[in-house]
């Protein structure tokens, strides 16, 4: 089989800083496990737009079309003054997700004993938290039409978005989440607002029917999204796999980051349906954004990006042992006291981005 093509797009703000450390880890594991992998870096982002007039230049577009897995840093979608709307749309993260056909965004949340004091939660709440969001990534209010800002009959402006799901989108995300739960602790919590939204009511019907037809061995709970927000901080251990839509998944996964101590700890991986050759196309990225408040200082936490490499090794390269080794190295580095500023306690010395990368690599 052809080597796995990995396309590295650092993007904006701290994106390139944390991705550089992730890439060191990826190259190390590629060599250590002799993985057939071709790694290509391409420019992408606001700096690229300023330099070339294009957010995603032609060579990057071409690389996106042939890649198996993108290792992505971050975008700063707020720092785009003066950028033409077409350029924004062509190069946006949303259009990238769509071009790759990504529909299942996996956002695992695990807690590290070493960070008990850093998290605002009590250690007894945190102990043993091990959950994963399956965030539907192809639909919902992110893509629904009509959308826009327009004027009503009285000349007042109004912003319009449309929350829409068709049953095929719900089924493919739910089937993925059920299968994932089956390989874990066998519990799926499906999160919606069936009490308010028709798209939520359909979501619940479709998930219930799929459970009945194909996944009766998995325990299914339905939960309203607001309750899920509460349960994530009252009793997070109850969750195994959480299936939810694009917007709820975005919000609830950031809310869960508090348990992990920092947004700088949470990785994610997004997958397409299998292509004819059996491979899924994928994009791996930290859950966090470009962090303009700390960009350029070399202080960002690279662990979310490094843990995203673990997801790449697991889901795209298919080497579970290598994925676990990276995750274990992160835990070992934390246990040995390695702390970037976001996870250091007041007065505790903090390591920069590269030194955090060193601390992980030293354990691989
Ligand atoms: P953010 O995630 O960039 O930052 C939120 C807070 O967390 C900031 O205080 C930041 O310093 C901190 N933080 C984030 N990552 C960190 C890390 N690795 N190490 C240490 N601290 C870290 O969210 P924001 O500030 O609301 O958004 C900034 C920009 O990022 C916006 O343009 C937003 O659209 C974009 N964004 C992009 C993505 C993505 O690329 N997938 C995700 C979220 C936000
Ligand atoms: C994320 C981000 C993105 C999202 C933005 C930057 C489009 O918040 O990946 O969590 O909302 O999906
Ligand atoms: Mn988000």
Question: Short description, anyone?
Answer:
This protein has 364 residues and is of the alpha/beta class. The protein has 13 helices and 12 strands.
CATH class of the largest domain: Alpha Beta
Number of domains: 2
- CATH hierarchy: architecture of the largest domain: 3-Layer(aba) Sandwich
Superfamily at the CATH H level of the largest domain?
Isopropylmalate Dehydrogenase
- Helical proportion, percent range: 40-55%
Strand content: 15-25%
EC number: 1.1.1.85
Family: Belongs to the isocitrate and isopropylmalate dehydrogenases family. LeuB type 1 subfamily.
Enzyme class: oxidoreductase
Protein name: 3-isopropylmalate dehydrogenase
What does this structure look like?
There is one protein chain. This protein folds into 2 domains: 1-112 and 261-364, Isopropylmalate Dehydrogenase, CATH 3.40.718.10; 119-260, Isopropylmalate Dehydrogenase (3-Layer(aba) Sandwich), CATH 3.40.718.10. It is built from 13 helices and 12 strands. It has helices at 15-32, 46-52, 58-66, 85-91, 93-99, 123-126, 167-182, 198-214, 225-234, 246-260, 303-315, 320-335, 353-361; strands at 4-11, 37-41, 69-74, 104-110, 130-136, 148-151, 157-160, 187-192, 219-224, 241-244, 267-274, 280-286. The strands form 2 sheets. It has a 10-stranded mixed beta sheet with strand order 2-1-3-12-11-4-5-10-8-9, with helices on both faces. A two-stranded antiparallel sheet has the order 6-7. Helix 1 (15-32) crosses helix 11 (303-315) and helix 11 (303-315) runs antiparallel to helix 12 (320-335). It starts with a strand and ends with a helix. The mean pLDDT is 96. One of its GO terms (molecular function) is 3-isopropylmalate dehydrogenase activity. Its cofactor is Mn(2+); Mg(2+). It catalyses: (2R,3S)-3-isopropylmalate + NAD(+) = 4-methyl-2-oxopentanoate + CO2 + NADH. Keywords: Amino-acid biosynthesis, Branched-chain amino acid biosynthesis, Leucine biosynthesis, Magnesium, Metal-binding, NAD, Oxidoreductase.
